[in-house]
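Holo prediction — flavin mononucleotide.
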Amino acid sequence: MKAAIIYSSITGNTATLAEIIHEKMEKQGLSTDLIPVDEFNENQLYEYDVIAIGTYSWDNGELPLEMEEVYEAFEMHDTKHIITGVFGTGDSFYPYFCGAVNVFRDMLYVHSKLAVTLKVELTPQEDDINRCDKFCERLISEVVVPI
Ligand SMILES: Cc1cc2nc3c(=O)[nH]c(=O)nc-3n(C[C@H](O)[C@H](O)[C@H](O)COP(=O)(O)O)c2cc1C
């Protein structure tokens, strides 16, 4: 079983969250690649059984431009078997808090086995660490281990 985290971050909040989740997935025994979106190419989708998407939100809860390639890759390729989760950071000052998480959630629900979502206010705080644990547990609980 192999996992990846594909994420985008401008000011570092989502990168911090991605790093926390990465560490926790590895600790829970799932070998996980941490992939900034500028290093992503769509053929990588075929290498992974589990993929967590990390995104900030922009412009009325929209996807960041650079995440559109990832979004479209799930729509265009056969990704139904991939267990997915989506997490993000946002600012509740804006009307569509973490709107990009919802945008990915709705697409991944159709095009993959969506297991879990997580929204964090700006930089992850102490409370969010437990929520990251739960995010990883939910993702990993969907993995079927053959015996
Ligand atoms: C111009 C602008 C628009 C934004 N729009 C939203 C938004 O619609 N919804 C939201 O939750 N956060 C919004 N944010 C806040 C960012 O998503 C938030 O600061 C996020 O943590 C940035 O992630 P990063 O540090 O990984 O780049 C916006 C920020 C800026 C500067």
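READOUT: The chain has one domain: 3-141.
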